[in-house]
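Interim report, section 4.2 (structural modelling).
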Amino acid sequence: MIQLIVLFPLLAAIIAGLGNRIIGNVPAKIVTTGALFASCALSWPIFLSFVGGDATPHVEPLFTWIRSGDFNAAWALRVDTMTAVMLVVVTTVSALVHLYSWGYMDEDPDQPRFFAYLSLFTFAMLMLVTANNLLQMFFGWEGVGLASYLLIGFWFRKPSANAAAIKAFVVNRVGDLGFMMGIFGTYLVFNTISIPEILAAAPSMAGSTIGFLGARFDTMTVLCLLLFIGAMGKSAQLGLHTWLPDAMEGPTPVSALIHAATMVTAGVFMVCRLSPMFETSPTALGVVTFVGAATCLFAATVGTVQNDIKRVIAYSTCSQLGYMFFAAGVGAYGASMFHLFTHAFFKALLFLGAGSVIHAMHHEQDMRYYGALRKEIPITFWAMTAGTLAITGVGVIDVFGFAGFYSKDAILEAAYAAGGRGQLAFFVGIFAALLTSFYSWRLVFLTFFGKPRWAASEHIQHALHDSHGHDDHATHGHGSEEANAPAQENAGHDAHGHDAHAHHASATGTGGYHPHESPWVMLIPLIVLSFGAVFAGFLFHHSFVDAEHGAEFWQGAIAFNTHLMHAMHEVPLWVKLAPAAVMLTGLAIAWLSYIRYTDWPRQFVGQFGVLYTFLLNKWYFDELYNVLFVKPAFAIGRVFWKVGDIGIIDRFGPNGLAALVVQGGKLTRRLQSGYLYTYALVMLLGLAAAATWAIAR
Amino acid sequence: MNQLGFPILTLMMAIPMAGAIACLFVNDKSARSIALIATLIDLALGIVLWATFDKIQGAQWQFTEYAPIFGRFAWALGIDGIALMLIMLTVFLMPICIGASWVAINKRVGEYMAAFLLMEVLMIGVFSAQDIFLFYVMFEAGLIPMYLIIGIWGGAERIYASYKFFLYTLLGSVLMLIAMMWMVQEAGSTSIPVLMAYDFAPQAQTWLWLAFFASFAVKMPMWPVHTWLPDAHVQAPTAGSVILAGVLLKMGGYGFLRFSLPMFPEASAQFAPLIFGLSMVAVVYTSLVALVQSDMKKLIAYSSVAHMAIVTVGLFAFNQQGIEGAIMVMLGHGLVASALFLCVGVIYDRLHTREISRYGGLSINMPKYAVLFLFFTMAAVGLPGTSNFVGEFLALMGVYEASSWVAIVCTTGIILGAAYMLYLYRRVCYGEIVHDDVRAMPDLSGREMWLLAPIAAAVLWMGVYPESFIAPMRADVASLVARVDRAKPVGDAKLTAGKPAAAAEGHAAETHETPAEAH
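Predicted structure of the assembly:
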């Protein structure tokens, strides 16, 4: 069964990617979407059987991959609780995103390519989560990186998309350097890269030391940190996060699937998968905690000032990944995986909701040109509200809460309970939760409430101009909202389009534009994910983080710390209430700033201009890296080429030799003078030299 | 005589030789056909060779032939698994080279085809020679057809390029010849297998190693004697670049494997730091140079130097993973670099320029080309599932055991490699089409598909199931590792045991006694 789950997306990708010219666009879409729903349907029973406690972990071997000496890496599919959790996350979100893309990508001429990439991604992700050795995990790791590169650059005519795609790949490769070194080191130390064998042997290596780059370090710390660098790259943690916001250049369904729900969580997955290994190195866990907390805070601060709806959600993702990491860092792997699980649903929901808004607003992504969309696209509005309630963690203790309420509170309580650095992470996490609540509600208020500010948007004006520029645009289809709308409405568009000229000057107002709710293929995924965002936490929190049920559920797939999970429930009441308090505070600030007193943000910018610019420019990481790495790489490359190769090696090498030969030729020509006495002299000198040598020897 | 009952290696050399002679006397059209048929027969024979090669318990040297010529000089042939794989690479690429020249070469077609067929003879000779002088003759004679191919059918600067190529490669080989004569005198045999088992005195090894190094380092090419390669590639016709990158560059690595390591283990260990140092410089240096190239062929040529540096570090890792990895990089790079040069050739044939900036947006009007080019780009970047990953991974893992510094510096190649290859791909295939002549370029023809698709299949095969390629050479690499083991340098890891409570287990892991079965 697991073989089929993994194989279906690969086959679909091949058929749709290479055969779309033969079978046509629609069959290509049907094949990929059908394959994903089939995989999804097969995955849920596996997950539920682990939840029910009547499944045992097992490995399905396939065939040899790389064998060299003692080194042996086979293709194999591992099924345990970790895999089961990831299987449902990956296949469910992927299937829904495939379906959603029918609507979202409706007018794109390259749809089969898009669907093939999505399926290819899913295959690679499934290979990653079913890996039984580090190398197959790396295969999946790079495979999802490839798919991410292809999908970010899907609109390859756009220079910004191409730049973002390369950036994503190359920055991830920096992480991969760490991952590869980690695998090398692991093999050197354990003589195997099989995950279960490493995890079994890891405790015995605690306390040993290893030479690395000329110094001696604790063995397990070196290995864990090297692997963690890989995780940082894939999961966009502080320092290697710069690619994730840029990755929003890709189509929105991609952002939902890859850059929110699945691929970016691979780093968290890796740390949790290797948790018994990380447990042997407190230093490494400390680093994981600090990096996670720092990212959590950093991304949340940047998220509060972004204007692009997708970038807000992207930074939010980055920040939520930080939560997952510091949860892992304090030893609460169950909570970390639980947040990964719930986050997949509500973040995919938020992204797809944002996609629906963007679709309705004719590809306008700037929230400053939104407003008052609540009535125009009500289903999207309610779906995004569900997502926001989930991410901000709304709920009442012991009664009911949205998904994030269970997972985020579990992380925060576990961090507090862990003590030490965990308490620092707790306070950082609480502050980030305040920011999360603020930017999430800010997004909702700017988009769905207030007055319409659409008229000033270039995209909207484009739509209006186009719609009266063509007679027969219902078939032409500039936006599928138009194509799907009744002809009656289109006539209305034309009328408004003419009016639009009058509104150009004003920054607010509708400009005569009518947003339309997205088609049902897009709304159904939103509704399904809304159920996930509402109920995923309530239904499964016993399995993931409960001290009693957790150990049964995980069956040793992670280093489940029953003690910590108990301690989590013993934290003071204020710790339990703090997340709710900051959530309400954030909501209140957002409400005051964006609904009640709408000039507050402007005043804030005036008051704290430096801070605002600093945040708006994302702490200047891109600029810094440009100066530190990108520009020097090109400059040094040019120096090596012009000075090193041409100026030195060639000049003194072959060209110098050629010049020498010419000179030498001139010299010997002079020797061959033709005069007998010259020859006689040379002969005599030679004879004398030979005689001297013979005697002196 | 051997498991087949007929001298298959001689036959594999005789057929292209006969084809080469025939090509000189017929018209252009027949010359092409003769060359294609001769190379395809060799490919078929190569498959027979591979299929009948006994990789489980066969002798180390198989398909051996021996016929004395004069004195000690003999027509002695025979292959092990390593040579088998390199011969397969040669016979696989040759028909593709002929196909790539099918329409691009219009002048002196007969001579051109003859040069290629002669090259095939000599390459098979290099990889199957068991007599050290026979090897030398083949090794050096291989220069001549390549020299002619660049000098006659090359681009505008072909004379300079061929001069540079010849000068570099010849200088090294003079020293090698002297060393060979001394060795034969000392050991009393010209047989390579005998010499491989002969223990030269360590002091002598130093000088002999350096003499061989002078030749192989140029052939690799290693930094800083690499500058002939970009020029040779740029000026060579497409098929010339293919065979240069695909097979000729592998002769240096093969030389290290066949001579330097087994014959001079102590000197190899002594000079390993030199190899590591030059290779580390090469990876970073040439990758950065590749980043700023505006000529496609130059870019790929520089990337070849970086990849070959991974080969050298792998070879001098003194362990199974390192050496097998190095050979896999040689094979993988032979396929991928060849394919990339073919990809350049495809668009060069249409627009007659290698300037990257003249292209752009090819994904729009050449989708098939864009897919294949992307595939080979990703293979060059070393994506798992493609041939290059297997080799690079094993080689770097092997060298990590020797030195973590070397491993980390060489592994930066995966970052830089991604940067320059994706930057190239972006400039060629992505973006809008800005030039009208680019817009008019047609997609891949059937012939071009037939050149690239088999390579793509091989790259994928080697990436997903490399066992087919590693298995035949496993025993040979193991015996090489056993041979050099006495000189093996100590790595920098120097792992200590874990905490005393679990000392027994920790000790077992440390001393590598636990058999690794990754299931």
